[in-house]
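Lecture 7 notes. Example A: sequence first, then its structure tokens.
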Amino acid sequence: MKTLYLMRHGETLFNQQKKIQGWCDSPLTELGKKQALVAREYFIANNINLHSAYASTSERACDTLELVTNVDYTRVKGLKEWNFGALEAEHEYLNPPLPYGDFFVDFGGEGELEFRARVSQTIFDLVQKDAGENILMVSHGASCRQFMRVWDHTSRIDLPGRIANCCILKFAFEKDQFALQEIVNHDFTSVL
């Protein structure tokens, strides 16, 4: 059995400014950096030895991963966030109500099922080929949520609401199936 730790990046400038952030990027805030260090402590406190690591090619994901672990990692385009097309970097009030479906296609972005397939196939392929037992992947909120949706039929737990910055989703991978085992929402009061 392998364990996948799928994690959202730390808070960014655009998160703070309530801007739509998919393929566009903005730097981690000071809080975002501190969130990543709190996530690092989770792995240390639980004696989790990470054997391999992957990050979205977005700088916010790579910077988060580098604060969480010193393990060499691979940048992977398939782990990128939803492409929101022309609405990238615009204010979040332009988002439609959930579920988004194919709303962003008209703006040159990705449809929901296309996006879900990209992320889930990327994660599946990486974990299947990886020889390590404990694998860390740092990605994005919607990417993590879409992966959860693909495997909700094998999982006994769910997370209503948003996936918080630096939230860790712990999946077991066995016989080509993922099952969500734990949702780690950190207490950031010490860094606020």
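Example B, a different protein, same format:
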Amino acid sequence: MQPWQPLLDWWFGPETAAAEVAAARHGLWFGKRDSQDREARERFAPLVEQALAGQLPSWQTEAEGWLGHILLLDQLPRMIFRDTPRAFAGDARAQVLVQQGLAQGWERQLAPIQQVFVYLVLEHAEDLALQDQAVARFEQLLAQADAGERELFAGFLDYAEQHQRVIARFARFPHRNLILGRESTDEELQFLQQPGSRF
């Protein structure tokens, strides 16, 4: 078994159809539960630390290892280090990793639902060019989706567009300011009073 397989099994489960995977794993992916954060920490914290330290080059030799490496840098820190600056510690490295893999076409070897977590790295970036790239990639996923899964991928695209609009307006995510010790502007504070402003 490849070293990244337990992580991919945990993250995506045994289902294969995108809608089934998303239905079964949505709570893990986008829920905020102490039990899930604890499980992520207990099972994968050492790997996350290795990824953050740049110690997993062997994971960058094929598409699924690339995906696992991305999860360790982008998704797992947001669980393991939730509400601390380290939640975003892997973002810059993940962005580089994503661009390297996209240049090699590795995303084409992944299922569409797996590709979502490649493009979420771009969606998490406080960089408008990367946000634009994220929206374009999610548009492609929607265009290629089967009729029964168009609603799912339309939702991912809508969320990407929401992130893009925030970065276009503020050049950063205001909801991260408190965690990262950044001072919010009056406009950002007003924005944060709106529903849905904190993702």
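Note on Example B: The two ends are 35 Å apart (CA to CA). The mean pLDDT is 96.
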